[in-house]
């Protein structure tokens, strides 16, 4: 029996080795970040109002992302005739922010610290949630950066100010975001059905300049016209809740809402964002893998992120 020739490299199939994001290098020392893109996990789900489990989202997304660890110099898209994520794009995985069980304040602070370290390095932060409350410390971490606009792709408005004393749960992030001086506005896409936010929240969001677009409205507009509504050439932060997608393709989430987007609808919007704007950061939240034993929700999340990272890096000025 012949021995494998490790000197010429290894096949390194998706089911082999350690599940970092896309099987990219793991960096334990956050003071030594030198990359175009830095992945940070935020396995926090104490902010949920219904089904918990998004704490396992980062791990599941990473494992699913190994499917896209191409190992052959990038990902060729024959429709675009472009090879995305070639060897010129460096991606590292920083592991997870430390989560202190039952302690929202300290856990959020640890997430904020991780994002601040990425921003210091000038890498693009990509944060894997976790419930949507992780967006609160992420946006706080940007307070010393130039102002930016937030694009939220989500089933729910997440604009609750306070409910029974709770101000930092997964129903609050967009309300907390507009309170920040460095956030210039919101575009909220995919909002539908019975929401966690009452009418007063919608009125307040619009009063503060938010553009709220339902799935049906987005389909009438199309991807290009939807993204044009943001305005020309802005700095944009993108937050993606997996429940923006129809639960027929993304059942693994805590608050599923039928009537959501299909894969290409979101992908085309993300492509247009990368063309029209400068993306300063991304989070993808609310993947709760235990509600989807097929793993398709986690694969969807990983595939969306890999494509979006590719678009952002290709279209960077």
Structural notes for this entry:
The chain contains nine helices and ten strands. With 317 residues, it is an alpha/beta fold. It has one domain: Ureohydrolase domain (Arginase, Chain A, 3-Layer(aba) Sandwich). The protein has an eight-stranded parallel sheet, with helices on both faces. The mean pLDDT is 94.
Short description:
The chain contains nine helices and ten strands.
Q: Report how far the terminal alpha carbons are from each other.
A: 52 Å
The best one-word shape is: globular
Q: What's the order of the H and E elements?
A: EHEEEHEHEHEHEHHEHEH
Order of adjacent strands in the largest pleated sheet = 4-1-5-10-9-6-7-8
CATH architectural grouping: 3-Layer(aba) Sandwich
Which structural category do the helix and sheet elements fall into?
Answer: alpha/beta
Q: Which percent range describes the beta-strand content?
A: 15-25%
Largest sheet, in brief, is: 8 strands, parallel
Please work out how many helical segments DSSP would assign.
Answer: 9
The domain count comes to 1
The CATH C-level class name: Alpha Beta
Taking all Cα atoms into account, the compactness measure Rg is 19 Å
CATH topology: Arginase, Chain A
Number of strands: 10
CATH homology superfamily name: Ureohydrolase domain
Provide the low-confidence segments as ranges. Answer: none
Helix proportion:
25-40%
- Overall mean pLDDT: 94
């Amino acid at each position: 029996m012949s021995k494998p020739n490790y000197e010429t490299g290894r096949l390194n199939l998706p089911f082999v080795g350690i599940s970092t994001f896309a099987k990219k290098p793991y960096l334990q020392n956050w003071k030594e970040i030198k990359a175009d893109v830095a992945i940070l996990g935020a396995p926090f789900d104490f902010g949920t109002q219904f089904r918990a489990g998004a704490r396992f989202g980062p791990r599941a997304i990473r494992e699913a992302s190994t499917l896209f660890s191409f190992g052959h110099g990038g990902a060729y898209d024959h429709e675009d005739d472009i090879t995305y994520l070639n060897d010129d794009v460096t991606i590292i995985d920083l592991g997870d922010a430390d989560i202190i069980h039952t302690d929202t304040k300290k856990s959020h602070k640890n997430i904020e610290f991780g994002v601040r370290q990425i921003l210091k390095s000038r890498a693009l932060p990509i944060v894997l949630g976790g419930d949507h409350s992780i967006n609160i410390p992420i946006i706080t971490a940007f307070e010393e950066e130039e102002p930016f606009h937030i694009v939220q792709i989500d089933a729910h408005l997440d604009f609750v100010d306070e409910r029974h004393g709770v101000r930092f749960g997964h129903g609050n992030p967009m309300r907390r975001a507009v309170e920040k001086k460095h956030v210039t506005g919101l575009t909220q896409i995919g909002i539908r059905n019975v929401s966690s936010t009452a009418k007063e929240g919608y009125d307040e969001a619009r009063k503060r300049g938010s553009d709220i677009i339902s799935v049906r409205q987005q389909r009438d507009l199309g991807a290009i016209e939807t993204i044009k509504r943001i305005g020309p050439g802005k700095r944009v932060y993108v937050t993606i809740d997996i429940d923006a997608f129809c639960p027929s393709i993304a059942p693994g989430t805590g608050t599923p809402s039928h009537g959501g987007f299909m894969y290409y609808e979101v992908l085309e919007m993300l492509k247009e964002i990368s063309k029209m704007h400068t993306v300063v950061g991304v989070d993808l939240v609310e993947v709760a893998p235990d509600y989807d034993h097929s793993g398709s929700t986690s694969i969807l999340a990983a595939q969306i992120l890999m494509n979006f990272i590719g678009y952002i890096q290709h279209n960077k000025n």
